[in-house]
Write a structure and sequence with these properties.
Gyrase A, domain 2; 21 helices; 13 strands; globular; binds arginine; EC 6.1.1.19
Amino acid sequence: MKTMLELITTEMEAAFEKAGYDKELAKVTLSNRPDLCEYQCNGAMAGAKKYKKAPFMIAEDVAVYLKESSYFETVEVVKPGFINLKLAPQSVADYLNQMSETEKLGVEEAEEPKTIMIDYGGPNVAKPLHVGHLRSAIIGESVKRITRFKGNKVIGDIHLGDWGYQMGLIITELKKRKPELPYFDENFTGEYPAEAPFTIGELEEIYPTASSYAKEDEEYRKEALHATYLLQNGHRGYRAVWNHIMNVSVTDLKKNYERLNVEFDLWKGEADAQKYIPDMVQMLKEEGYARYDEGALVVDVQEESDKKEVPPCMILKSDGAALYDTTDLATLVQREEDYQPDEVIYVVDKRQELHFTQVFRCAKKTGIVSPNTRLEFLGFGTMNGKDGKPFKTREGGVMRLENLIREINDEMYKKIMDNRTVEEEEAKKTARIVGLAAIKYGDLSNQAGKDYIFDVDRFTSFEGNTGPYILYTIVRIKSILAKYKENGGSAEKLSIRPSGNVYEKALMLQVLKFNDVFEAVCEETAPHKLCAYIYEIANEFNKFYHETKILSEEDEEKRSGYIALLGLTKRVLETCIDLLGFEAPERM
Ligand code: ARG
């Protein structure tokens, strides 16, 4: 279904042409003065020079033809040459009714669906999830849902950090604690135990302990590096420990992501990319892309237009070890082999931007991906505490994700119990649903690239630009719709009627924008615009609700028209929050 902007643009183009002007001028935008009009066109100003005519006259010429169109209630020409438009209530109602007939609320699926891979989450195995991983998960999940809604084939890949030095650290510490385990017996040829020699709790203690030992003790660090080296070169016992670490860790990660309503299609990781490295390195050497620089193998990626230095992409260290660049390049080789994506979007902390610039340039330059593959870095900012510094626990440590979620849920539970409309059990369940919305909306409503302040009080508030406010609005609509039914309201498909008052029209105009907004959100990979949109809908709905008798409206037709509008409003809101990755409870 065409968006309203497209439809109006078509009308506008026809009017410009009929009046004898170039239709290129007929650009229509949403009004930035909603008090004066709903849509506007400033093309007459742009045409003044070309036609050597006052913009006002051009606008007047065009307006003559616009006035013939049934789309508009008013067409006004304002000095110096703005064309201000208000839609006719009938055409708004028609549009909304059509929209509600479509499955995707007027959004048209991509004519040529793309294969898009989204690299997000990126947790490091054996380390507890912390708030830094929260943003990647939340933003990535939403981007996945948005691009998928557009009809693309979308594959979300968690890209585990499962191959680095942290593995060597854990192996080293485990060996010190339990040297008797068969994994450390070089002569052992039997089958290794199926059960892991640690629990997730132990694993999460082993890692930081080993990490701090290694920082203090050079010998220990060397041992851990050597263990990493052996693991990466196929040491049988270490590989078995690695498998245990993976199983225990991934089970725990799955639980955590499930709680966040975050789901991955692929659970691949850095380790999976390793087997692609030798051939890739050989290609880079043979085709003359790589050169040695002080023993290290590098690929130059500096471009002439660069204002700053972009250091070469590091392929192998002088001791032959692979690096972060290598792994990401090899992962692209793998992705190319398995999926031939048209686009890969990386949702990663923006401090890693340089790394991705290097990797992207190297992948393009060396033909690892085709020149048409779009590699996009969606870098996000830091989540800060109220003090403006990276979010920490009260004690100053790294905040674990679980604890953060618990803190929000407890606060939500208190607020819900203060309202005292639900039982304790239900309140707990509701608190989890609303708590998640508070966290996700708090994050997504900011432009991804910016830092933001995580403020429990603000995020959990039922008022203002928050997740709970949005959910509260949905719940309010649900309850009106339920009452309408209880009172014997018609169960048949109702239709939206031309608006009767300004509040109703304002709400309608918001709802009607959904497909226009969605296109921009998708095009710009910008979930924050979806948040801004539903916040506006919620505001318009609540104004309408306070100013209008809905269920007590006596005119049956009017009443059912309101109900139809509420039904569509609810669908739009629910679709949007689903695209953002959360849901609404039945009651609050
Ligand atoms: N594991 C990395 C980290 O915690 C993030 C991985 C991001 N994705 C990637 N393809 N490099 O910093």
